[in-house]
Amino acid sequence: MTYYSYEEFISDLKSLKLPLEVYSPEAIVSIARGGVTFGHFLSSMLDIRELYSINSIHYNDTKKLDTIDIFNIPDLHTYTKILLVDDIVDSGDTLDTIVKILKEKYPKLQIKTVSIFYKKTAKIQPDFMVKEAHDWIEFFWEEF
Questions:
Q1: Using one digit for the tens of pLDDT, what is the confidence trace for 8-42?
Q2: What is the SS3 assignment for 39?
Q3: Which of 17, 39, 79, 129 supports an S-S bond with 118, CB 3.0-4.6 Å?
Q4: Is the dihedral of CA 122, 119, 23, 98 positive or negative?
Q5: Is 103 helix (H, G, I), strand (E, B) or coil?
């Protein structure tokens, strides 16, 4: 297990600023729960007030489930470019499913994806990413 600290997170966040500013999304959609903290920080850093979340259940604690439940899909019909945010792309199943759902519902929407961690073996790679994950990540925001 790897512990991911607040200090490391802030450094990684700053490394994404320029490429994300170049993309210039109109809205941010965070995948709850893991992407919500990351999305909040990104919205502050990029000064984007249009911050939404979409819910996905694919894990129960550390156990991957056989199904992906996607719900609370935001109304994005007024946007042309969004940033879809998650903390980690593990298998890629969740990100792939959500991208497909959003493209089906909003066919003209340009979607770019960002995650802090990714695995090279995932079925989909984020457009913007920081670090390769080699084991389970314990994020500072999961401490309580």
A1: 999 999 999 999 999 999 999 999 988 999 999 99
A2: helix
A3: 129
A4: positive
A5: helix
Q: Between β-strands 51-60 and 63-71, what pairing exists: parallel, antiparallel or unpaired?
A: antiparallel
Q: Which residue has the tokens 């940033």?
A: 83
CB 37 within 8 A of CB 61: no
Model confidence at 64, in pLDDT bands (50, 70, 90)?
low
Query: Could you state, in order of their start, the residue ranges of all structural domains in the chain?
Result: 2-56+75-142
Q: Is 143 exposed, middle or buried (0-12, 13-18, 19+ CB in 10 A)?
A: exposed
Q: Radius of gyration over alpha carbons of the chain, in Å? A: 14
**Nearest to residue 42, comparing CAs of 96, 3, 77, 85?**
85
For the domain made up of 2-56+75-142, the CATH class stated in words is: alpha beta
